[in-house]
């Protein structure tokens, strides 16, 4: 890995170069809002010495098999992790399973299994899904592991020694499904399937029960002003803005102390409270500490803990943006740098649920649409601010249009033997495409060049703020422009025997391959297999695919292009095969025995 100093120098120079560049001025092409963000980033993350980055997914409950929403959380985190690696960061990426608590205890009982065997089975299913979908985690944690139990007990003792935990009596509403305590204002009425009136959480719709028991309480109420100070001083701590505002709003409301244990007689499946075998630690406290366990807590967590970023779904924001920071403040530990919040996937406009029979199995879908296809769809259509609706048809339409036709078609057009008989990265001719107009290019071509030159800065901004769909929108628009460029100049109509035509033809292909190289490089965090195939076909070596290598069209600026004259890669297979909309049901892979028995 390059030394931080060297990278800092190069990166800052690179941005400086971007700002100086006369023919294409990426920064000036951005909106003022984007411009400020790029420049702010230049001085904070590019020039910062600490090149470590730590990203986490929520750990997943093992009461049921993984569904599409779980894969979505993991794909977002994987995308950010891969992006940081491309930028030269030393990135750690943690995911895993949340295995304690009443909900899991009850699910294991219902399955007639001992809890650990039950947890192991389902945890393996999550792992299998993530491995199949190229989720490149560096750490997979299970809360039933010894090291984690030690970390939780240590964390508890620190809070206790600071006088932040006291024995009390909790009386109020509890939702086992959400493993959450609720105030009266968070509870409403509903009717169950037999028509009986029940109480439910207004937020999740899950059933709540009245609970009264002796347990340990955490002095959450004492942390309101510190939490407000943290948010006031860090407007980017919770993103998008909408969720930051929601947390500020919650902090205006009642913030009672939090029950952080359950009586052992009711909950055996969990970590016992140190020094009190009659009580079990509340599953959310247990689960949140997983982020610290992976970082090396309690002995050597600083390297990672100081640069922690969490991805969370909107349903678990309160736990991450109020309880967790309060616990951390209490324990004297730094707070996470960013909590990125995403919204949910619905199916047919409804929440996915077993009873509605609309749960989308992500493994099954990724076998039909390919892993990269599913990753692309989730990140292109998933919008952090609001829910997105899933249908197979949307997947097929989007992937056919953007991956098969637009991107795949462009690659095919520029590498097909008919147009590129020598199978090389052809030469660029400066007279055919001079930086001042006068060659054979038209004004739209210059706009296209400008857009592609700007693209890395634009994509970077969107990746940084978890607006991955906007990054993909920008890439997709550029791919369309490059297709327009090829279409406009119809290289297949040029006469190879005429040297001027031949030079122009080579230049068109050179420019198009340069565009494809940029798209392939920037898409690596989203569709690693397709990007690899694309870059390999262009002859771009693994060591030439980082963010620092993007340098678009150097020949246009009078610099050397390392790819010019290079042989193309030999794999000329289709980049992404078109999907047929019929017979999706027939294509569904047969369920394995294991899958059946876990249901
Ligand atoms: N175990 C807790 C998290 C503890 S983290 C210390 C939990 N687990 S979960 O399995 O229920 O949810 C894990 C993630 O999946 C959450 O980010 C949640 O928002 C996400 N999703 C669950 N359903 C979803 C959709 N329908 N759509 C998108 N994501 C959703 O909560």
Mean pLDDT: 89
What is the radius of gyration computed over CA atoms, rounded to a whole number of angstroms? Answer: 27 Å
Low-confidence regions: 1-48, 590-599
Strand content: 5-15%
Distance between the termini: 45 Å
Q: Main β-sheet, in a few words? A: 7 strands, parallel
Proportion of helical residues: 40-55%
Provide the list of bound ligands, each named once.
Answer: 5'-O-[(L-methionyl)-sulphamoyl]adenosine
Number of strands: 19
Give the CA-based shape.
elongated
The assigned structural class equals alpha/beta
**Total of helices:** 22
Task: State the gist of this model.
Residues 53-414 form the Methionyl/Leucyl tRNA synthetase domain. Helix content is 48%, strand content 15%.
Q: How would you portray this structure in words?
A:
It is found in: Mitochondrion matrix. Its EC number is 6.1.1.10. This is Methionine--tRNA ligase, mitochondrial. Pfam families: Anticodon_3 (PF19303), tRNA-synt_1g (PF09334). This protein is α/β, with parallel strands linked by helices. The strands form five sheets. Strands 1, 2, 3, 4, 10, 15 and 16 form a seven-stranded parallel beta sheet that branches. A hairpin with a 5-residue loop joins strand 7 (187-191) and strand 8 (197-201). It is elongated. The two termini are 45 Å apart.
What characteristics describe this protein?
22 helices; seven-stranded parallel β-sheet; 19 strands; disordered C terminus; binds 5'-O-[(L-methionyl)-sulphamoyl]adenosine; four-stranded antiparallel β-sheet; alpha/beta
